[in-house]
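During the no-cost extension, the postdoctoral fellow (Dr. R.K.) reprocessed legacy sequence entries with the updated structure-token encoder. One reprocessed record is reproduced below for audit purposes.
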Amino acid sequence: MTFDIRAVESADEVVRCHRVVVQLRPHVASAEEWVERWRRQAESGYRLLAAYDGGLVVALSGYRIQENLVHGRFLYIDDLVTDQGPVIAL
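Re-encoded structure tokens follow.
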């Protein structure tokens, strides 16, 4: 099984990710609220990567590149979730 992993860069793509992110963050109830949060967080460097199986988002990572005096430059992962949908036997 192969997945297509790519950056999520448009509001339409963010909406498609809502079904998966809400499994980790159930308090983000609507796709509209999710898009607004993504836009605000993106202003401070928040980015999304999604894994697609066909056209369906099956995993998602929200991250940012940060830098500080203690660690230097590093990758901080805010969110990491895979779809809890049914497991398909191969």
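The chain has one domain: 4-82. The CA atoms of residues 31 and 70 lie 36 Å apart. The remaining legacy entries will be reprocessed before the final report is submitted.
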